UniProtKB/TrEMBL annotation:
NCBIfam families: aden_deam, PRK09358.1-6. Catalyzes the hydrolytic deamination of adenine to hypoxanthine. Plays an important role in the purine salvage pathway and in nitrogen catabolism. This is Adenine deaminase. Pfam families: A_deaminase. Transmembrane segments: none annotated. The record marks H220 as: Important for catalytic activity. Zn(2+) binds at H16, H18, H196, D277. GO terms for biological process: adenine catabolic process; hypoxanthine salvage; nucleotide metabolic process. Residues 11-331 form the Adenosine deaminase domain.
Length: 334
C-alpha cells in the first residue's frame, strides 16, 4: 500500500476547520444564484485564480466577502453537509468545527439562522455518514470585547449544543489578553476554550492563550518553535496543537512546505494534529495536508499514525469514545 493509500483509509479527527472556509466556489455560485446575490467575479475559475494570498489579512478580506452568499438556514445546512461529505471521503470520523457568527450577524443574518442550519447538517452527517461533530463558536478578534460578549449572550439558548469558544481572524495587534474576561465567562458556562495563537503572532500570544485564556488547545502554534521555554511548557501540559500545513503555505507562514516545522514539533514531543483550516481556499482537505507533509518533509507512516492518534486524544470526545477511535487507528495500522 502506498503512503497516500494508507493516509486515505487512516481514521482521523479534524479539529481545526472553519466551516465558512469550506465554501467551494461551485457552491458559492449556486448560493449566489439562489439568493440573487451578485459576485465580483464571473466564473469558478476566476474565483479560484484570485486565491493567491501573501498573508492572513489578504485571505481574510476574500473569505469574509465570500461568506456573503450565505443567507438562509438551508444555505448553512448545505455548506455543512458539503464539508462532511468531503471529510467522510478522507476517513474523518469526528470533527470539531469552527463557525464565525459575527461574520453573519454583522450583515443582518440572525445567529439562529447560521447555527440551526449547521446543527441540522451535523445531525445528517451523524445519521448518513457516521461522522460525529461538535461546534466551536469563534470570536472575531479584530472586533471588540463588547461584541464578543454580545455574541456569547446570543449563543445562550444553544449553550448545550455548543462545545466551546475559539478566537480567530487578524492575529497581530489583537492579543489574547483582549478577550480574557469573555473567555473566563465562557469557562464559567462550562464551555471548552481554544484560540488561534502563534500563526502570525509572536510566542507571547501563545503564553497569553495558555495563562490568560486557559485554553484546552492551541490552534496553529507554529511560532512556539522560537521559544524553548514555551515548547517545554506545551510538552509538560500535553497541549494539543492543531497545525494546518497547506494553510501555512498559502498564507506565507512558511515559505516552503519542505521546511514546515512539523518534524521538529514531533521531535520536541509536542502533541501535533493535522488539519485543513479553510480547505476551499487553501487547495485541499485534511488528507491533502497529511500527504503534503509525508511527501515534502518525510514524516514517516508511524508519525502519521501518531498524529491521527493525537487527533482523537486531543478532541473533546468522552474518554470511552477516544479510546474506541484510537483502537481503530491502531488496528488499521497493525
Ligand atoms: N487561518 C486563520 N487564521 C485566523 N483566522 C481565520 N479565519 C479563518 N481562517 C483563519
Ligand atoms: Zn484557522
Amino acid at each position: 500500500m502506498s503512503l497516500h493509500e494508507f493516509i486515505a483509509g487512516l481514521p482521523k479527527a479534524e479539529l481545526h476547520l472553519h466551516i465558512e472556509g469550506s465554501l467551494e466556489p461551485e457552491l458559492m455560485f449556486e448560493l449566489a444564484k439562489r439568493n440573487r446575490v451578485s459576485l465580483p467575479l464571473d466564473s469558478v475559475e476566476a474565483v479560484r485564480a484570485a486565491y493567491d494570498f501573501s498573508n492572513l489579512q489578504d485571505f481574510l478580506d476574500i473569505y469574509y466577502s465570500g461568506a456573503d452568499v450565505l443567507r438562509t438556514e438551508q444555505d448553512f445546512h448545505d455548506l455543512g453537509l458539503a464539508y462532511f461529505r468531503r471529510a467522510a471521503a478522507d476517513s474523518v470520523r469526528h470533527a470539531e468545527i469552527f463557525f464565525d457568527p459575527q461574520t453573519h450577524t454583522d450583515r443582518g443574518i440572525p445567529f439562529q439562522v447560521a447555527i440551526d442550519g449547521l446543527l441540522a447538517s451535523m445531525d445528517r452527517a451523524e445519521a448518513e455518514l457516521g461522522i460525529s461533530s461538535r461546534l466551536i463558536l469563534c470570536f472575531l478578534r479584530h472586533l471588540d470585547e463588547d461584541a464578543a460578549f454580545a455574541t456569547l449572550k446570543a449563543a445562550e439558548p444553544w449553550q448545550d449544543q455548543i462545545l466551546g469558544v475559539g478566537l480567530d481572524s487578524s492575529e497581530v495587534g489583537h492579543p489574547p489578553s483582549k478577550f480574557q474576561r469573555v473567555f473566563e465567562r465562557a469557562g464559567d458556562m462550562g464551555l471548552k476554550r481554544v484560540a488561534h495563537a502563534g500563526e502570525e503572532g509572536p510566542p507571547d500570544y501563545i503564553w497569553q492563550a495558555l495563562d490568560l485564556l486557559k485554553v484546552d488547545r492551541i490552534d496553529h502554534g507554529n511560532r512556539a518553535m522560537e521559544d524553548p521555554a514555551l515548547i517545554r511548557r506545551l510538552v509538560e501540559q500535553g497541549m494539543t496543537l492543531t497545525v494546518c500545513p497547506l494553510s501555512n503555505h498559502k498564507l506565507c507562514v512558511v515559505d516552503d512546505l519542505a521546511r514546515h516545522p512539523l518534524p521538529s514539533m514531533l521531535d520536541a514531543g509536542l502533541k501535533v494534529t493535522l488539519n485543513s483550516d479553510d480547505p476551499a481556499y487553501f487547495g485541499g482537505y485534511v488528507n491533502r495536508n497529511y500527504e503534503a507533509m509525508a511527501d515534502q518533509t518525510g514524516v514517516t507512516r508511524d508519525q502519521l499514525v501518531e498524529i491521527a492518534i493525537n487527533s482523537f486524544a486531543g478532541s473533546c470526545l468522552p474518554e470511552a469514545d477516544k479510546a474506541r477511535h484510537i483502537s481503530a487507528v491502531q488496528a488499521y495500522a497493525a
